[in-house]
Design goal:
two-stranded antiparallel sheet, about 20% strand, elongated, five-stranded mixed beta sheet, alpha/beta
C-alpha cells in the first residue's frame, strides 16, 4: 500500500507547486534594484555617438528608462503608448537600446518614430545586466533622487500605463 501512496503523494506535491507557479503573473518578477540607485549608464547616445547618456544629469526629475531593441516585436507595439504618455504627462523618456546593432537601431527609430529624448547604445548588454534586465521590453521608473522605484517587464499597454506606471509616477512628482 505504501508503495502506491508514496508516488501519489509526490505527484500531488508537484501538482501543487506547478499550480502555484502558473497562478503568478510572469511579469511580476521581483527586482533587487527597487529602491536602489539607478546604475550609471555612460554609454554613447545612439543618434549622437560623441555624447554619452549620464543619469546624474537627470537628478531632480522623475524619468523613465525603456529598454528596447530593433529585433523586439513588442517594443514597436508599445512605442505609441510611450510617446503619448511622455507627451501628455510630461515624463522624461530615455531609452536603452539593448544588445542591438547601432545601425539597425537607428533605422528602426527612423521607420517607427523616436519617442526618446535620448537612447543609449548598450551593444554588449553590460548596462542592461547592471539594471537586472531579463529581456526586452522593460521599463524602469526612476525618481528625482536617482533611485529605481518601479520595474515593468514586457509590453506597456494603455491600461498598464494607466493602472500601474502612471500612479507610481504621480506619487513621485
Amino acid at each position: 500500500m505504501l508503495r502506491y501512496l508514496l508516488p501519489l503523494a509526490a505527484f500531488l506535491a508537484m501538482a501543487v507547486f506547478l499550480a502555484m507557479g502558473l497562478s503568478r503573473d510572469p511579469r511580476a518578477v521581483p527586482s533587487a534594484m527597487i529602491d536602489k540607485p539607478a546604475p550609471a549608464i555612460g554609454l554613447p547616445v545612439l543618434l549622437e555617438p560623441d555624447r554619452k547618456l549620464d543619469v546624474e544629469s537627470l537628478r531632480g526629475k522623475v524619468w523613465l528608462l525603456n529598454v528596447w531593441a530593433s529585433w523586439c516585436g513588442p517594443c514597436k507595439e508599445e512605442l505609441p503608448v510611450l510617446r503619448e504618455a511622455a507627451q501628455r504627462h510630461g515624463i522624461a523618456l530615455y531609452g536603452l537600446n539593448y544588445k542591438d546593432k547601432p545601425d539597425d537601431a537607428r533605422d528602426w527609430l527612423a521607420r517607427n518614430g523616436n519617442p526618446y529624448i535620448a537612447s543609449a547604445s548598450d551593444v554588449d548588454g553590460r548596462v542592461g545586466i547592471e539594471y537586472g534586465v531579463y529581456g526586452v521590453p522593460e521599463t524602469f521608473v526612476i525618481d528625482g533622487a536617482g533611485r529605481i522605484r518601479y520595474k515593468h517587464l514586457g509590453l506597456i499597454t494603455p491600461e498598464l500605463w494607466r493602472t500601474r506606471l502612471q500612479p507610481v509616477i504621480e506619487s513621485l512628482q
